Queue: 2 jobs
Job 1
Amino acid sequence: MAKAQDKILKTQEITLNMGPQHPSTHGVYRCILTLDGEYVTDLENVMGYLHRGMEKLAEDRTYTQFIPYTDRLDYLAAILNNVGYVQAVEKLLDIELPERVEYIRVIVSELQRIASHMVYIGSYALDLNGFTGWMYTFRDRERILDLFEMITGSRLTLNYPRIGGVSHDLTDEFMKGLQELVDDLPACFEEYDGLITGNEIFQSRTKGVGKLDAETAINYGITGPNLRASGYCFDLRKNQPYGIYDRFDFDIPTGENGDSYDRFIVRMEEMRQSLRIIKQAMKDIPEGEIMAKVPKVIKPKAGEAYHQIEGAKGWLGYYLVSDGTTKPYRNHIHSPSFVNLGVYPEIARGGNIQDAVVILASIDIVLGEVDR
Amino acid sequence: MEKLFLNLGDVIRNWLFTMGMGDSLVNLIMVVIYVAAILSFVLLNVLYLVYLERKLSAYFQQRLGPNRMGPRGLLQTTMDVIKLISKEDIVPQAADRWVFRLAAIIVFIPAVMLYAVIPFGSGMIAVDLNLGVFYFIAISSSTTIAFLMAGWGSNNKYSLIGGMRTVAQMVSYEIPFVFSILGVVMLTGSLKMSDIVAAQSDVWYIVLQPVAFLIFFIAGTAELNRAPFDLPEGEQELIAGATTEYSGMRWALFFLAEYSNLVAMSALAVTLFLGGPAGPLAPSWIWFVIKVYIMIYVFMWVRWTYPRIRVDHLMNLNWKFLLPLSLVNILVTGIGIKIFEWFRP
């Protein structure tokens, strides 16, 4: 006869590799899950499948030549990367920009932020199997990409800002299209709210999932919407204004619980605030030059400059060291996705495998930026 | 028109008799013809449903859907089938080969067997069993085995989790599913499909049993593994769940079964709650198809609107909500029947 002890059901933990090829890892990211049934007892980040050595490449390119490389970092917010980089170089060169350039940069940056958040909202819905939500956001993002195509010629790896200005002026056609878009966007946001935010299943799957309190978030160096969702109001556009952001009137949305739902809501609200900024910028934009007086060959004096902007995913910083040649001696990039991903194992433990997918979607990573 | 298919059957039967065949041989041939007819009905439906699903999802998502192959993309599924047939049939090296191979076939068998008891029109039922409803439930629940075999045989952890989820989900949802049907059976007093249809000649059971219909619909969606209950597949977390390792025609068999089950489930809903094939003016079998497609439309509508439910919520919904509700429904139906009997002259 079998002993009583042998009859007790034993569970065994299994190791499951999620990624680097997996529908929900948002790129070539891999996490090693330790599962007890469906519950995640441990999670380990594995990155580097997309590593291209961007920072090292920068050392062999001129300052101007590196602009297109920044597109490929966070490829969903290419213009924000461009702006961050060119502003860092401008800081190094100490250049004064024409007014119109500053306004144009604000308009395109905020448009890009909306476009990036739309991908977030859509792919978040998709990770919960809400395919229709994904299609809705991509439908509206297309219109923003159409506008970008008018002024930059490309749709994804936009390469628009230049050191000292921007490559093309905003056309009348662009401004007309922008006006129509600005008029239509509130209705689109309403639609997302109706389809995704207000959905009972969506709420039950995201509320209380992947909680991150402000203290842990700060300890991990989390920035951007993820930090604000944890209830800590910090936005570089307000706290450390760069460009002309101090001239605009907008709010910084924050969350209360720091869960996956709040991270979603904060971004929904951020899109509305970005829209407010665009409207103000459109009203005030002056005529004028789109390029400052910049030397043909950019050769900063030996020294260093650090500049950080509020990217779509958090602090985006460029640290440039010049040795007086045409090429940077060192170009270090602080990429928000990489830092934000660090907290993923911490908040995914204890949930189930479906929660792990939701949490990964909620922290909004782009692998181009994680791996640089 | 009404008796088109019945007359067609009689013509063939008489023709076989004039050929000088014996009784048993004719019956045997007729069974083969019935099976062939049902199979072609199922396959034609599946062919169209794949197209319908893609077109409907496109309309829900404000895009076009397939529109290149044939007029309005109508040949898309034909091309898909050609593609699937010509694809390489991969069996993973570490898989349990026989279990893996058999699963794809086993999943399709109950999906076809279900149609034996479905009344396609008045008098158009292959076998009018005394316990037709019971037969349907018994056969439809055996799909679980195929999914478990696929999940286990693939030797893939994603598949295994998918297979386990299928078992948990099917076993759980079977209970409120059956209980919701009980209300109808209590009103009819019979498990026979033709009796249930006949009993609805005055009023459809969706009016008398609205709660049961709701439970039936929810549990039925779960039984079909359709969103928001498509956890066994669970693309976002399990890639394709139990069917991850399947390719080409074997994979297609799973989907054939899925869509075939969808038609069968809709047909059962029509039979139990929507008055079966009955309807004015047009022949009954046309009404049957119309009603079935209304049900299918609702299933698809739900699928393309809702996100997927979480696995523990799935269990909670079943055990803490649907099951008690279905029991209450049975109680209320029983009391209602008694009260009705008292006041009946």
Job 2
Amino acid sequence: MSHYLLQRAGQGLLVLWAAFTLSFVLLQVLPGDAVLIKFQNPDLGLSPAQIEEMRIAYGADSPLWQQYFHTLFAMLRGDFGYSVQAGVAVSELIASNLPDTLQLAVPAFALAVALAFVLAFVSRLPALRWLSNAIQSLPVLFISLPTFWLGIALIQLFSFQLRLIPVINPSPLQGLILPIITVAIPISAPLAQILLRSIDQVSAQPFVGVARAKGLSETGVLWRHVIGNALLPALNIAGLLLGELIAGALITETVFGRGGLGQLTQQAVNNQDIAVLQAVVMISALGFVLINLLVDLLMPWFDPRLKTVTGGAI
Amino acid sequence: MHIPFRLPLLTVLMMATSVHAWAVETPVKGGTLIYLEQQAHTNLYPPAGGFYPNGGILNQITDKLTWQNPKTLQVEPWIAESWTSNADKTEYTFKIRPGVTFSDGTPLDANAVAKNFDTYGLGNKAQRLPVSEVINNYDHSEVVDAQTVKFYFKKPSPGFLQGTATIGSGLVSLSTLQRNFDELGDARHIIGSGPFVVSDEKLGREVTLAKRKDYQWGPKNLTQQGPANLDGIKIIVTPEDSVRIGALLAGQAGFIRQVQAYDEKQATDQGFQIYAAPTRGVNDSLSFRPDNPLVADLRVRQALLHATNTKQIVDTLFSPNYPQATSVIARSAAGYTDLSDKLTFDPAKANQLLDDAGWKAGSDGIRAKEGQRLALTVYESLPQPQNKEVLQLVAQQWRQVGVALNVKAGDAGSRTLDNLDPLKTPLTVSEVGRADPDVVKSMFYPANRDALLQKGGSSDKVKSFRDDKLNDLLVSISAEVDAKKRLQLTGEAQRYLLDNAYVIPIFEEPQVFAGAPWLKGATFEAVGRPSFYGAWIAKQ
């Protein structure tokens, strides 16, 4: 098991390094740079010579390979550089925005999982079979709702019409309710669909027939035998939904005027604030690696067959 | 909801007309104003205060040497009690009001004022602080005594006095001036002497202002004196248009900036106040870059000017708060000359001019000459109201005379780079506010904003275009001592710009705000930045 863990961690590091290199290259080929964008502002009226001086002052003229290793080693030391646009250290920007993102993403993810389970479970309950079609079509509806529209609609209804939750100057808890729902609904949809299909597949397996033959009730079969076995594919997809979560958070943060990595990324993209973008890419990559590692570690717990494979000869 | 409010209000109104003393309501002290901004502020170095969100903050936290009365446009005392200048306008002497302090406790005296203008007038390379565009021909300062400062100019600088009243000339403490340019993105680093101070900031999201209890130096001609009425202001960045207006109408905010024209009616119908503050400068326009061969021919530029139906643009996209342009600068700007006869919509004339210039209709309906299509590119300008819609409508109008206009959004990098290259962008969107004739020079002079991209200006990609006659005219505006002659020169510059069809003025751009009915006393400086010094929250 520890060998397996080490191997997975090594792969994770490789992924991180690849993400760094790829993003570094891609960000360098973009036309213009943050120094230019900031100082070419007509409000400032600087001459080309003056702007060139600024660029040199920011080290924008040193060779690429030097910038690459400089940035890589600095990041290894935990130094993410300086945001040209905001005029503060990137680490400070991340430190002030990451908690907001986590506060939104973690409960939203939990809510999405809960929603998916409720949907899948309820639609397969024998007592509610007459509703099953309607419930099954909900994920399709959820997935087709644009996050932007959903956010605005929730604000209009709950904040402006019913005046239940203020959207401006809310308490920390009030400020989270609507954004969490906005992020969770589109994420819950693919999860619910996978879970539904997986439940159907497992239900057709012989061992379920055996359980039924032993006289277990339909609900009992679903609860004790089917759900557990149907979890694997859903767990796998859950790891992948992280990307979706970040994209959804970006729009949600803009609509609700919240802080967070999404909003930070959008501003950094607008201003080509490369140091910030590089840091965001690394944090997202790290998030991906960690979640997938977690999923890999949880899998054998759900499916004992995987233990023998992973613990084996590799 | 509405009826119980209406009756007492009506009673108050009736009483107000019968008893004169009631007409002036007594301001209520206290309360925090929630102010929703569309965009986060950028660098708050005062000369960069032209950006709307920056001006909204700087106008509350910094004071200026002088105060420009937004009604009369006269320059009146503020931090300077009085001033004199020589006949040539090459020397100005200001007497500083005693007892003024910055919020860090340091004195705002002659020495501080001298250091401020030395920085704004000359820039500071070591700290990367750029020169202010409102100060022309600056040479040096001299501290005569603790309350007297004298400024010397290389050439006459008649616009300087008004320049001391602008957002870009907000006075900051010596500690602020010692910082590097990149540190001034943090509002907490801007130490001014204004009625409010920055007490907290969440970068990119929220700025909290608190009133200064010891503030005693507001402009002496204002009714408001002493500290501000409000305890504080919370400026919250709310990018989404519908959320800003919705929050205001639902009572979650007291004041919002950037109300779209289509939302105005909704607000006034519910008793909310729309404030359309004029920016009194160069109108929202399209400026040509004649270095691009496609628009180098005067006839092509004239044709496009006459192919543009500005009336249709303001009627379709805007409200009466956005008047159709009748010259290069706004009707309310100093030196305005009505040139609407040069700005006629005349597609027949446009077609004729394009035919004369040798552009023949091609197979796809777009005119072509020697195998080249008359297709132009322009980048959408994000700070201008509904700019994308405006440009798309212009594109439709130009299509009628066989000219293609490609409207691009693009990322900031491409936009910035391409806007410096006349071959890539034969035209650009331009607008700038300032209540002084110098504004025309600010927009078109190569060493300033250089909207036409001249050789030797902001771009090294320009091959040959340079109009020295225009430049001489612009310089003479900024250096003409005789006020009457200066306005006349300003008129000449407008005429010259339109005779050469260098610009297509579209509409006079206001800054549109909306406020709750209970918010009283919000005012606007001469180019539309809000001031909450005298503002107060009435009992609801």
